[in-house]
Design a protein that fits this description.
Elements lengths: L15 H5 L5 H15 L4 E2 L22 E3 L4 H13 L4 E4 L16 E4 L6 E5 L4 E5 L4 H10 L2 E2 L12 H6 L7 H4 L6 E7 L5 E4 L13 H4 L8 E8 L1 E2 L3 E9 L2 H15 L3 E7 L1 H11 L11 E9 L7 H12 L5 E4 L3 H11 L5 H4 L2 E7 L5 H15 L5 E6 L4 E7 L8 H12 L26 H14 L12
Parallel strand pairs: 2-4, 3-4
Antiparallel strand pairs: 1-2, 5-6, 6-10, 7-11, 8-9, 8-10, 12-14, 12-15, 13-14, 13-17, 16-18, 17-18
Helix pairs in contact: 2-3, 9-11
Length: 486
């Protein structure tokens, strides 16, 4: 070890939004806006140029559209009044959070009213006895993390957009992030939820109990529903003891099988203390090094790279056990080389390579894929996918990376490297390869509008019918986030 230095036939589904909700006539919209101003105040209802650029699109930069209006409620009561008015008028409403999504899930149409949760923010309570944090939906993930840390706890959910993304959006998309192998997805961090339904009714179930076996666990209907069933306004998040020692390493590997073997080796040795295991193929790694303006710590190039985080509870852990484990793996031929961060700054520099994806929307014309498939098949899929892309579109630039510990592979194709090719053709081409593997077209970013037609690849007709039935029951006029998911 180095010195410690597709082509397919979409299922035919009845869409409650398209069947029951039509674009409102201008006069009806004016009347609805008047009612909303009366209920929320004129400063909470913005139209035209009053609507800032942030409300027009998400991080995909897909089809920026100015909505008919932007609502900025301050309380759950105002959200309730707003939805009741829009429900009565059959007026479509698109909930918006931090606008960091990558599936077009929060982009409104010109006839939609966008509803921002940004004013409904802040931590309401940290209960040390129950180890819970009650937060409003517009609170950024980073603010929630910092509140937990100040009290000696840890909010396990973490992702690169932490400073911009909001808790409500994290839950609406069931965000994953970097530490899923240790603590699970956003869904696993929730004990209680408050949601406003399409008709304005408020479901308040903000319990702090881990055990609550009293019928349907309704919160799970809304987590991952992408705002199509209700608007999340508050949540009770479960906290974990703070892991006092974190050690980060970047390792070089010979191939994908070696990466899986190393993951299993470390999991056997450290169990749940392996907090992250991020894989980067050379295309992504080299681009990340370039974007961050750093130098690779390795003297030569390698077939694969893994960013690994060991996180334990012992504050006196100096990292020697982790270093020895990597040394043993090196001597056993399980890895080619490794560098261990010697400071917080070193660790951040290594993580910056992996989190360079924040620059993708400004450096690329990104066509993003967020898929899930059996861990053992990811390596072969990457090679097959890369070869197929190169054959179909010679000269394309594609970047492969992911969290293989939770079976999640990311792929970004730069649309600028395939000039004249419609993004949809690239989506269909990759998803067609995924279908036979019974993989998921979305591991953590949701379906939104960009993956809507490909949902039948991962869901059976019976599953889709059940989802539509739930949508009809909770949103009979189809006003909530129409055109998304279904």
């Amino acid at each position: 070890m180095t010195d410690q230095r597709i082509t397919h036939e979409p299922a035919q589904m009845h869409d409650p939004a398209s069947a029951n909700a039509t674009a409102p006539h201008a006069a009806n919209l004016d009347a609805t806006l008047d009612a909303l101003r009366a209920a929320l105040g004129a400063d909470a209802v913005r139209v035209g140029e009053q609507i800032g650029e942030r409300a027009l699109t998400d991080w995909t930069r897909h089809e920026p559209t100015r909505p008919a209006a932007l609502l900025l409620p301050r309380t759950v009561e105002e959200v309730s009044r707003a939805l009741a008015i829009c429900h009565a008028a059959h007026q479509p409403v698109v909930p918006q959070g931090g606008m960091t999504g990558l599936a077009g899930g929060a982009i409104a149409r010109a006839t939609d009213i966008a509803l921002s949760l940004e004013r409904i923010s802040g931590v309401e309570e940290l209960d040390s006895a129950s180890a819970t944090l009650t937060v409003r939906a517009g609170t950024t993930l980073q603010a929630a993390q910092e509140a937990a840390e100040q009290a000696g706890f840890e909010l396990a959910l973490d992702l690169g957009a932490r400073g911009s993304c909001q808790i409500g959006g994290n839950l609406a998309t069931n965000a994953g992030g970097n530490r899923v192998i240790q603590s699970g997805t956003a869904r696993d961090q929730v004990l209680g939820l408050e949601v406003v339904l399409a008709n304005g009714d408020v479901l308040t179930s903000l319990g702090k109990m881990v055990k609550n076996n009293t019928g349907y666990d309704l919160k799970h209907w809304f987590i991952g529903s992408e705002g199509t069933l209700g608007v999340i306004t508050r949540a009770v998040l479960r906290l974990h003891p703070r892991r006092a020692a974190r050690h980060t390493a970047l390792v070089a590997l010979g191939d994908y099988d070696a990466a899986v073997s190393l993951l299993r080796r470390l999991a056997t040795r450290f169990g749940n203390d392996i907090g992250a295991f991020e894989i980067m193929w050379p295309d992504f790694y080299d681009f990340g090094v370039k974007l961050t303006g750093t130098r690779s710590p390795f003297a030569v190039a390698h077939p694969l790279y893994a960013l690994i985080e060991h996180a334990g509870f012992d504050a006196d852990d100096d990292g020697s056990r982790f270093a020895q484990a990597l040394t043993d793996a090196l001597e056993a031929g399980a890895l080619r080389d490794a560098v261990i961060a010697q400071s917080v700054a070193d660790a951040r520099a290594l993580w910056a390579i992996r989190e360079c994806t924040a620059e993708f929307p400004v450096r690329l014309d990104p066509i993003n894929f967020d898929v899930s498939l059996p861990i053992g098949e990811i390596g072969a899929f990457v090679e097959r996918c890369r070869a197929a892309l190169n054959e179909r579109w010679p000269g394309n630039e594609a970047y492969f990376f992911g969290h293989i510990g939770d079976s999640n592979l990311h792929l970004t194709v730069d649309g600028g490297s395939v000039p004249g090719v419609d993004h949809h053709a690239v989506y269909a081409f990759v998803y067609e390869m995924l279908g036979p593997l019974r993989g998921s077209v979305s591991a953590e970013h949701g379906i939104g509008s960009l993956k809507r037609e490909f949902l039948p690849i991962s869901r059976s007709p019976a599953e889709l019918a059940a989802m539509v039935a739930i949508k009809r029951a909770l949103d009979p006029h189809g006003i909530l986030n129409p055109g998304k998911l279904f």
